[in-house]
Amino acid sequence: MRHLVLLGTGGTIATRTAPQGRRVDVGAGELLAAAARVWEVPEAAVEVRDVRRITSFSAGVPDVLALARAVRAAAAGADGVVVTHGTDTLEESAFLLALAHGGPVPVVVTGAQRPFDDPAPDGPRNLAAALRWAAAPESDGTGVTVVFADAVLPAVGVRKTHTLELAAFAAPGRGPIGHVDEAGVRRHHTAAPPAPLLDAAADDLPRVAVVPQYLGADASDIEHAVRRGARGVVVAGLGAGNTPPPVTAACLDLLAAGVPVMLTSRVGAGPVVGLYAGGGADLAAAGAILAGDLSPWQGRLLLAAALAAGAAEPSSTAATVAERCRTWLRAAGAVDGTHHLLAGGSAPSQTKGT
Ligand SMILES: NC(=O)C[C@H](N)C(=O)O
């Protein structure tokens, strides 16, 4: 029999409806009892711990680092760990857990779109599916995954894609890597997750700003972010990874001054590639980190983790921080978009990470 640990953190899955709005007041034990009414998991014994009782929009990086430590402690003595979490920032927490988690024990994050006291709640089934996935040998070695609406998605690349629908998450280009439903537990082919980058011992991460780009954006937001103490900047770029010329110029100045700049896209799916003169090609040539298909929010955590890892090494520079990100991205199977199309239209072949 597998031994699972269920860690409750709050979120809609653990809310009841009140006149002032939904409030978290359901513990992990009650969630487990509701899940067991959907599907029993007879092949597993589940130990329950309440880590937090908060909505995920109220959480901060220190909360998630503490959760990462709770996950590590639980994983040391279990065959699987399941975390219930609010959906608003679930894609970031799951990613941060993935940056800190190594080894074969599966860590499974789930939540709900509807409250616990909804007449047709989705939480009990999501949790039942997450427990079944964690209890099945198919989940071994899959790292951190998100189970939602019967789909198993990798934490790396997962995004919330709908505000209200029950199938609220997707990992465009990367998942689902499995399903849990009336037909049972199925794992599709998956690459091994990358080795951990973060030891989660610190209470917080270095400050990294996400700066969204839009029609006619200028450099003021980036300059403001750095003046306010950002140690790195993630640009949520246009299209395949472009910035309006004044923003490109500001990013080149930052790179020249040794401040890491990471390029992502605001589009919502697909990798960034340095294609256009005056935009992404200039940034790639100047040493910006092209974050593959990571969302700006996941990219921000990767850059912050790389900066934190560098804090321990006096010789760490913007270039070594960038290289740390690129090594992790390669291992996570991200496209290296600095290899932009060559004249003549052929792209060099990509070596996919394992
Ligand atoms: N569906 C949810 O869980 C949303 C909620 N606001 C939260 O993130 O805690």
Automatic annotation (TrEMBL):
InterPro entries reported in the protein's UniProt record: Asp/glu_Ase-like_sf, Asparaginase/glutaminase-like, Asparaginase/glutaminase_AS1, Asparaginase/glutaminase_AS2, Asparaginase_C, L-asparaginase_C, L-asparaginase_N, L-asparaginase_N_sf
PROSITE patterns named in the record: ASN_GLN_ASE_1, ASN_GLN_ASE_2, ASN_GLN_ASE_3
Name this protein carries in UniProt: asparaginase
Superkingdom, taxonomy of origin: Bacteria
Annotated Gene3D superfamilies: 3.40.50.40, L-asparaginase, N-terminal domain
Top EC group: hydrolase
Active site (catalytic residues): 12, 12 (o-isoaspartyl threonine intermediate), 87
A GO molecular-function annotation: asparaginase activity
Reaction catalysis annotation: L-asparagine + H2O = L-aspartate + NH4(+)
Stretches assigned to the L-asparaginase N-terminal domain: 4-189
Domain (Asparaginase/glutaminase C-terminal): residue spans on this chain: 207-311
GO biological process entries: amino acid metabolic process
The EC number(s) this enzyme carries: 3.5.1.1
Pfam families per UniProt: Asparaginase, Asparaginase_C
Family membership: Belongs to the asparaginase 1 family.
Binding site for substrate: 56, 87-88
